Amino acid sequence: PRLANQIAAGEVVERPASVLKELVENCLDAGADQIDIELEAGGVKLLRVRDNGCGIDPEDLPLALARHATSKILTLDDLEGVASLGFRGEALASISSVSRLELITSTDDSGKGWRVVAEGRDMQPQVTPAPHPQGTSLIVRDLFFNTPARRKFLRTERTEFSHLEEVFRRLALSRPDVGFSLKHQGKLVHQLPAVTADQDAAAAQDASMQRIARLLGREFMDQSLVVDSEASGIRLHGWVGLPVYARAQADRQYFFVNGRVVRDKLVAHAIRQAYQDVLFGGRHPVFVLHLEVDPQVVDVNVHPTKHEVRFRDGRWVHDFIFSALHKRLSGALI
Ligand code: ADP
Ligand code: MG
C-alpha cells in the first residue's frame, strides 16, 4: 500500500505549490476566515498553514490522514452541487506519504487541542494532547525526503517560491472575505486583511482594491474598470484591465465561479470576444472576475486539479459574460 500511496501522491503533490493549494483549500472548507502561511526554502523545508476554522475532533484525526477518508461528502446526492473544494479525501494521505507531517487542531476555545504526526513510511498516527487555539495547523517538513526522484524535479527555491506565490495569489483573490498572511524565510511577504460583511459597501470596495493592488500591482488598479452586472440568477463582478493594459502573456487572468478558481474555454472565449469586439490586438487582457451562479446550474468537480467547470446552460453563461464585459468596455471608450 505504501507504494500505491507514493504513486498516487504524484497526482496531487507535484511540488510545494500543490501542497499549499490543498492545505489552504482545506482551511477554506473548514470555514476559516484567517489563514496564515509560513514557508522556508521554497516550501521544501517547511510549509506551515494555520487556520481558525472548525478544527478536527480527536476521534477523526487518524481518519483525516487516511486515504479516501473525507468528512465532506455524506451521501451521493451531496455530489450534486457540492460546495466544498475537496471531497476525495486524498490530499493529506498523499502529502503525508512524501513528507514529515504534523497536524495540531482544536475544535473549541479551551486552548486544548490534539496533535498527530505522520512521517513518510511509518504512518501509525499517534494522537497526543497539544495546546492550540480553535482551528488547525498543518506543518509539512522535508517534502519528498523519501522520494529522491521527485525531489530532483524541484527547481530553485526562487522558482518554487514563485509557484507558491501564484497559488497564494489565486486563493487570496478568490476569497476577499478571508484574511491571509504569507511569510517566507521569516519575512512577511503579504498581509491581507479580510473584507468583512460588517463593513459598508465603500469600505469593502476599498479593502478589496487594496488586496488586488498588493497582489497584482498598483498599475493594474489604475488601468482597470470595475465590473458589476447582474441578471436573474447570475452576477459578474470584479475588475477588467483596459485594453491598453493587455500583456504579452496570459499570466494575469483570474476567473472565479462561486469562489473557486476556474480556467474554462467557454469563459475565456466570452471574455476574448468582448475585448476583440471593442478594439483589441493580439495581446492578453488582464482581469479578476467573480461569477456567482446558483450552485445547481454548475458542476465544478469535473476534475480535481484542472479547474474546469460544466454549466447546465453554457450558452446563457457565455452570452451573459460577453454582454456584461462588452457593455462595460465600450462604455469606457466613449
Ligand atoms: P478532502 O479535503 O478531499 O476531504 P483531505 O485529504 O484534503 O481530503 O482532508 C481529509 C480530511 O481532513 C477532510 O475531509 C477534513 O475532515 C480534515 N481536514 C483537513 N484539513 C483540515 C482543516 N484545516 N480543518 C479542518 N479539517 C481538516
Ligand atoms: Mg482537501
UniProtKB/TrEMBL annotation:
Residues 212-330 form the DNA mismatch repair protein S5 domain. The keyword Disulfide bond does not apply. GO terms for molecular function: ATP binding; ATP hydrolysis activity; ATP-dependent DNA damage sensor activity; mismatched DNA binding. The keyword Amino-acid biosynthesis does not apply. It comes from the Bacteria. One of its GO terms (biological process) is mismatch repair. Belongs to the DNA mismatch repair MutL/HexB family. This is DNA mismatch repair protein MutL. It comes from Marinospirillum alkaliphilum DSM 21637. The lineage of its organism: Bacteria, Pseudomonadati, Pseudomonadota, Gammaproteobacteria, Oceanospirillales. The chain holds residues 16 to 349 of 639 of the full protein.
